[in-house]
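Please, is this right?
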Amino acid sequence: MPVRTGHFQVVPAPEGPVPYALVGRDSLPVAPVQEYLTELLASDCSPLTLKSYAHDLQDWFRFLAAAGVGWDHAEWNSPREVDTGVMRLWSMVAG
């Protein structure tokens, strides 16, 4: 049985100040990701940093989709609580 990863893709942004966008199956930018990337841009991050973060968030959204969890239902008190080992294993299997 294949792993369902959800359809998320990093693409050149169609408009706006942020050079990259994470888009969903509907080809529309994922609003919370674009808001976050806009904040990073305002804090003087380089375009390559924005691209890197967009790809990291793409992996996160795909992981959540495979786990059947909506991004707005994923919770943790601290980034240290995220089991990166599970996510790394998932990315090897799904990749």
